[in-house]
Amino acid sequence: MVQPQAKIENSSRHPNVAGQPNPVEDYLRRLKGSNRLGKDRTDEIEAILHWLNENETLQRKFHTLESKILSILNLKDFFEILLTEMSNIFQVPYVWLSVIKKTSLADLIDPLIHSKIIIEKTRFLDRQEFDQVFGDHSVPLLFNHDLSSWSFFLPRGVTYHRGSIAVAPVWIDGEIVGSLNQWDPSPDRFEPDMDTSFLEQLMMKVSLCLSNVAAHERLKYFAFHDPLTGLWNRRAFETFLNQEFSRAKRHYHPLSLVFMDLDKFKKINDLYGHDAGDDALIYIADTIASLIRDEDIFARFAGDEFVLILPETNSTKAETLMRRVQACLDANPLHHNEIELNISLSYGIASIRDKSIQSAAALLKTADNALYAEKEKKKTRQLEN
Fold this sequence. Notes:
The protein is of the alpha+beta class. Helices cover 49% and strands 19% of the residues. It folds into 2 domains: 200 residues, Beta-Lactamase, CATH 3.30.450.40; 144 residues, Alpha-Beta Plaits, CATH 3.30.70. β4 and β5 form a beta hairpin.
């Protein structure tokens, strides 16, 4: 486990540092062997020696777990190793993670739903549900015997309604975002009056490691994503475009590219402010993302320009999709500060069926030229009207 320390009456805590001799233990052994003590005193020393040995073993286990997680910067590996190794090292039958919804931890966990271990050993809770367990406490808590009143918090199944649990809060950047939990069928494993000092120390390190991992994941995320819309950025798009172009050419599969931008974007910024412009970009991103397939690749190229890679799609189907997008925009105007804004797009489509296109760069350039031609047509129509 992360086994809480058993309490020994009238004894000071002298945890041994793994690999170093314990002077207190050495002294007690010499004193015991001097034959100058009565049986009661000898028994008390035996209990203290046993306690010291248990603490030394426990501390070594904590050190083993800490050494496994301290250097990890990958979120998936961090949680999988933490959950499995905690169970293995401390021989805890079940270890799981409680995650408070709408927190930074929930955001970090969400992309990891493909991990079998994380799916099986994660429970999402509302803040109110989490507070029913922890209340105002920010330290590990222990419960035993009948646990059925915490069924919403426990792993699924009545098996876990009896026994004992240790629950310890997890922090990211000073905010409690969930808890790391252990269950044992024995009600004596986690008794409420046990000392949880070692568990508190472990959770401080787990939370520190998690904050570091989260910071690393955020840096990695923003290296390939647009911070405003959450879409892929230009750097990621160019990598994907080269990959998809090569694959489509190699297998003689259709591939289309849509290059688009917002009509009158500058006017929106000038009339209603840059907040309205940002809302318009987010609105476009969310609308199109809701209408495309998982295999399609949607990115913010620059400013108000977006690009959409459509594998296994010819230009006719790409045109049909973009008409659906514009119809959706027309039917659902953007509302910004009680102002209704009608958003429209201009777009150009290119397909590798065009025999003149022999590179990913040429595909992009052809779509860009088609976008420019479309915008010129709109300007001509406006002047004629």
